[in-house]
Amino acid sequence: MEEITYINEHLGPRHIGHFALLLAFFAAILGMVSYFMATHHRAEKLRSGKWQRLGQLSFLFHGAAVFTVIGCIFYAMLNQYYEYQYVSAHVSADLQQRYIFSAFWEGQEGSFLLWMFWHVILGYVLMVTARRWESPVMTTLCAVQVVIVSMVLGVHFGFGDWVIKLGSSPMLLLRETINAPIFQQADYVALLKGNGLNPSLQNYWMTIHPPTLFLGFASTVVPFCFAVAGLWTGEHKAWLKPALRWSLFSAGILGIGILMGAAWAYEALNFGGYWAWDPVENTSLVPWLLLVAGLHTNLVSRATGQGIRATYLFYLFTFVMIVYSTFLTRSGILGDTSVHAFTEMGLEAQLLFFLGFFGIGSAALMVWRWRSIPVPEKEESLSSREFWMFIGSLVLLMSAVLITASTSLPVYNEIREYLNPVFDGVTLTDPEAHHNRFQIWIGIFVGILSGIAHFLRWREKDFSKHSRSFLLHTLGAVAGAVVCSWLTLLWIDAGPWQFKLMLFSGWFAIWTNVDYLIRFAFKDVKVFGSGLSHIGFGLMLLGILASGANKRVISQNQFLMEGLSDDEELERTTVILIKDEPMVMENYELTLRGDTIDGFNRTYFVDYKRKDAAGRVVEEFQLEPNLLYDKTFEKIAITNPSTKHYWDKDIFTVIMSLPLEEQSLEEKRKKEDSLKYHVVSLTPGEMIDFKDTLKISQPDTFMVRDYRVSLENFARVPVHPDYEPEPKDIGVSATVAISRGKADTVYREQIALVLREGLLYHYPAQINEISTRLKIDEDIFEQLLTPEDQLDYKEFVVKPGSSFRLGDKELTFRNFKPQPEVDHYLPQEGDIAVSAQLDITDAAGNTGTMEPVFIIRDKTPSRIRDEHREFGLFSNLVNLNPETSEATLLIAQAPPRDAVRVPIAVATKSSRSDWLALQAIEFPGINLFWIGCISMMMGLLISMVLRLRMR
Amino acid sequence: MKKTYIIAIVMVAIAAFIASNAFAEGGVAPYANFSKAAETGESVKLVGTLVKDKPMVFEPLKDPNKFSFFLEDQDGTEREVILLKGKPQDFEMSESIVLTGRMEGSQFIAKDIQLKCPSKYKDEESMIKGLVE
């Protein structure tokens, strides 16, 4: 095939980016080797120092290369170079600038780069702060970087028919990824447009959640590197101190990152909650649990020398679980079990290698060094703090194991299916219930352990001395927690006994840790971080219980259906709100007030009135749930909830459904086409009766109904509350009164029709009470429009009061009239308008009037023609001379026409479309959850800062 | 360290026991079909395809939490499904449907639904169409 020379492609970023990718890859390899040699020869200062400097230089270059790649992609994205596959997949012309970051990390390649970006930053920090640990730690970091860069390398190796693809490059051009006829055109670039960002990611949380989460993800590598360094160098105790600080940092940031994801889900998604035990959520929680377990054993190891092996294992497997999570979410193996896994990218083998290498590598290192890791002779005693901290860590491990096992079912299926192709995959029947059932016990144990462990002392040798104080405080806490739990039960309903136990456990954790803080905060400032974290944990338990187990559906189903269980009835959480018709639910009265469309975003306004027991309104507020249409208005891309926050509860509202014709333009057209319009032509003031037959499906009969329609007013300008004028609009409007049957109720509606740039815009009226739709038929314009160039105008320059003749008509220019009130001119603000009042008399003595208008709008003069149909006269006021007060008129004589008969189209079977299906939920005490989680993470970060300052 | 090891082992054993118990108790199961669902009468997960030429009824103004349609399970049995939710978007486009629910007489009462929709860009041609103005 002939080689095509493409024009207008922007290949600069591609060349630079591709080179930078290769540089990043090889610099990381060089860094790894150099740092390895530096560690290997650490006994020889000089030699080691040289290698170390080479390593530093390599990593500096590696980092610069990673930044360059990211810069190239941003450059291409900001300039909308759609010839790049990554740009066309994630950017579109209408993408707001503030979402450019979200677009960058929407794709796999971008998020890999974000991950690497943080590794580089962390690496730079380590190079400055790790001192003698720099070489061994950086060796591992470089090794990790080599593997991750290879994911975006996009290099192909061919061995005969075999092609090995190493990574997927973000710098690929669209024409390199797919084959299409369009690429036969040399100038195809001009034809491209972008696919744009997934609407659910067009949210401010998506700008801050991924970088935070990835910083958390990335930072888990540091404790991992330290653990590897400790095993490698055999200095099993020295690494514990720097590793602790880093794991505190990592746990804090990763926790905040996960929490932001929960906040995004709660604020922007429609499932009504913050946690759904989705595999992607689970696989980010598991490393956090392991890391937290690890930092507890790390504290134990530092204080007592016990549990170094456990600390190694926890830190190693935290990172391995991060890699496993990457494998699950990016290999496509989760498939249909997760709503937000990435799709396959052909990297499965590479990801598996990533996992295998670090998983097996970690295990091998442990086995190799197992015996050399020091273990104190003496066991920890039952009454020592370290013992119970161990148990706590094990509980966290158990939680991680259970979550991982359930989340790995797709992996299990895959393996079984590989071995036995007829094997049917298994799934969790109800994942949420499944996880909640186990994790509640984790919560209970951790809550209680966190209290007890704090009351015990490190390396307790003589518990009898302290047993009195321990018992006193513990019993106090139990009593306090019982009382608090009882008080809480007055507020919320905790449900089954396990929940009540969790409530107790939460209060126990809060009580004991407050007690502990009060007693020790002044003696040892470190207590502050751990106290805050554990109080946060207790608050979180209360928050989960209050908001989860006690969430109250306000929008309870109003429709009866036989034979449903209570559980199933609870699923029916949607109500229909009809515009302006108040709906009473529980202690609320909801009213849909209306909606606005801004771009693709449609916002509904729902009034809430909260009533007390006596039915008095105690509070009024408005919520604004909204939705985003896709770019063609053919479907709803996403619905966004709206939430009213109180200190003790949230009111959450989300749109569940809209009338079909409001969901898509296509459906709207279909509905309009399906309506059978009955057209009646009326002159203003006229009234007409007609009959309509309605088919009743069962039994097969017909019903005949009478309608009475009258045209009360007609104007040659569009008058309608929804109409917003634009220059050059031509339009008409009418006031129509309609009644059905013998009923006395007459519905009076304003309808309009506008011709704008060759397109017709209807402003119909829907009368829901009689399922009737009214509009002005398009044929109206055939009666009205007479092109200017078909008219033979004559010019007259006349003074007020003077008369002139045109054919057999005598016209008198009576006077000018400022601010004319005529039916063919719609005044707008800032208009300067004057009309010429003309009286007409024909040969037979018939009289009539015309009033052409001259306006200056936006400093531009223009004119509005008037027509006298029976006389066939058209008149224009083209100029007025203020000095002589003369008017310049253009008058034309055309064949006379009948008065306008306004065709009014009436459809009598038009169902209403002014409703929405809404879900409203009250989440009590949800702030306890947020405050608890935030305190937990803050406690971790405070601990890190305190420990950093102590050195 | 022995005590902690013992406790660790005990805990892992408990975890394994709980997990396997939960998995055995029907917490984990392969996708059922209608006849199996009718047999057990309990909540199951079921996969099938939409029967496109049978009526789909969703009348939100009458009941916004009820949508009925016909589903053909993997064995080719057709049953009416009552979904206790509104009609999901892109319902007709679904390749396969996963339901959570139980049989009640000849109807399947579904609490939850998951749609497997074909990827927006089934082939390169339609993908390119989406990217060209």
Automatic annotation (TrEMBL), chain A:
Domain Cytochrome c assembly protein intervals: 108-331
Transmembrane segments annotated in the record for this chain: 16-38, 59-78, 112-130, 137-159, 213-234, 246-266, 286-305, 312-329, 349-368, 388-412, 438-458, 470-492, 498-518, 525-546, 928-948
UniProt-listed GO biological process terms: cytochrome complex assembly
Gene Ontology MF annotations: heme binding; heme transmembrane transporter activity
Record-annotated Cytochrome c-type biogenesis protein CcmF C-terminal domain positions: 352-588
GO cellular component terms, A-Z: membrane
Keywords: Cytochrome c-type biogenesis, Membrane, Transmembrane, Transmembrane helix
Pfam families: CcmF_C (PF16327), Cytochrom_C_asm (PF01578)
InterPro entries: CcmF_C, Cyt_c_assembly, Cyt_c_biogenesis
UniProt family annotation: Belongs to the CcmF/CycK/Ccl1/NrfE/CcsA family.
Name by which UniProt lists this protein: Cytochrome c assembly protein
UniProtKB/TrEMBL annotation, chain B:
Domain of life: Bacteria
Signal peptide span: 1-24
One Pfam family in the UniProt entry: CcmE
Any one annotated GO CC term: plasma membrane
UniProt cross-references to InterPro entries, sorted A to Z: CcmE (IPR004329), CcmE-like_sf (IPR036127), NA-bd_OB-fold (IPR012340)
Entry keyword Signal: yes
Main location group: membrane
Entry keywords, A to Z: Cytochrome c-type biogenesis, Heme, Iron, Membrane, Metal-binding, Signal
Subcellular location: Membrane
A biological process from GO: cytochrome complex assembly
A molecular function (GO) term: heme binding
Name of the protein in its database record: Cytochrome c maturation protein CcmE
Native source species: Neolewinella aurantiaca
